[in-house]
């Protein structure tokens, strides 16, 4: 949506609010409609009962308020008759919103930090491809195949990591045979992977192949000089380090108890608001009446809390299938295309004039 906010105008803000994909409306609207439906179903039942039985709430009016309060204040009550519970629910919004805000704020902050760190550790292949293209010398078929193999195996390792952390990548490459069909894995390499008996970090095996290949190229003279050799290993290690960071973050998520307590707290708050705002005290009429304006007065409150929770839940797993999650399949395709393009441009440059 960056193009929609190219200028800070009211129209740009309106265009953002009207977007559907990835918006709070798409995330929150079904649950918000559910809470409003629950409220108005209860509202309809009580209204129907009041209509036929002519129920008034004068006892609450007489017991709860002093004459001065009856003249000046408008308050809510619940269907519960216990005075302590009535007071608790009536004052719920002011007494308990601060802890809820703190829970949501801390959860959102940690989720965003996690999202940002994962984003900063997405492995892009340009640096490695440029280093391979510059430092592995030779125009013969073996040297060209070696450069292509180094980059293909590096991206193969990336796919193996992303298959474990992303459902969308797993759907694209459901089996190891699908990697062969995509020309990212050779049949003999598959046999080596299957014979490795490595239940942990199988993506390290392609890097072992790369290190062995680089060592052979160094011995054959395709890599000249120790600094060049070390530089190749440094770029490869940086690429592998980013993959390992993403893998480790997926293995150790935010402790389950915290998103659970935040989710439960927000939804309990919404249910208490739904029940607690059924009645309001009508100052002019002098009795308790059903609150028909809940959607206008309290609906925005539910919308904000639910949207806040949904934002935190989306940020907590940036490798999922939400609209604004990181598109790892696009990153894989991008790395594959750019690395091939860079390798094919070996020893090519414009003529100096």
TrEMBL record:
<keyword id="KW-1003">Cell membrane</keyword>
<dbReference type="GO" id="GO:0005254">
    <property type="term" value="F:chloride channel activity"/>
</dbReference>
<dbReference type="Pfam" id="PF01062">
    <property type="entry name" value="Bestrophin"/>
</dbReference>
<protein>
    <recommendedName>
        <fullName>Bestrophin homolog</fullName>
    </recommendedName>
</protein>
<comment type="similarity">
    <text>Belongs to the anion channel-forming bestrophin (TC 1.A.46) family. Calcium-sensitive chloride channel subfamily.</text>
</comment>
<keyword id="KW-0406">Ion transport</keyword>
<feature type="transmembrane region" description="Helical">
    <location>
        <begin position="28"/>
        <end position="48"/>
    </location>
</feature>
<keyword id="KW-0407">Ion channel</keyword>
<keyword id="KW-0869">Chloride channel</keyword>
<dbReference type="InterPro" id="IPR021134">
    <property type="entry name" value="Bestrophin-like"/>
</dbReference>
<keyword id="KW-0812">Transmembrane</keyword>
<dbReference type="InterPro" id="IPR000615">
    <property type="entry name" value="Bestrophin"/>
</dbReference>
<keyword id="KW-0868">Chloride</keyword>
<dbReference type="GO" id="GO:0034707">
    <property type="term" value="C:chloride channel complex"/>
</dbReference>
<keyword id="KW-1133">Transmembrane helix</keyword>
<keyword id="KW-0472">Membrane</keyword>
<dbReference type="GO" id="GO:0005886">
    <property type="term" value="C:plasma membrane"/>
</dbReference>
<keyword id="KW-0813">Transport</keyword>
<comment type="function">
    <text>Forms chloride channels.</text>
</comment>
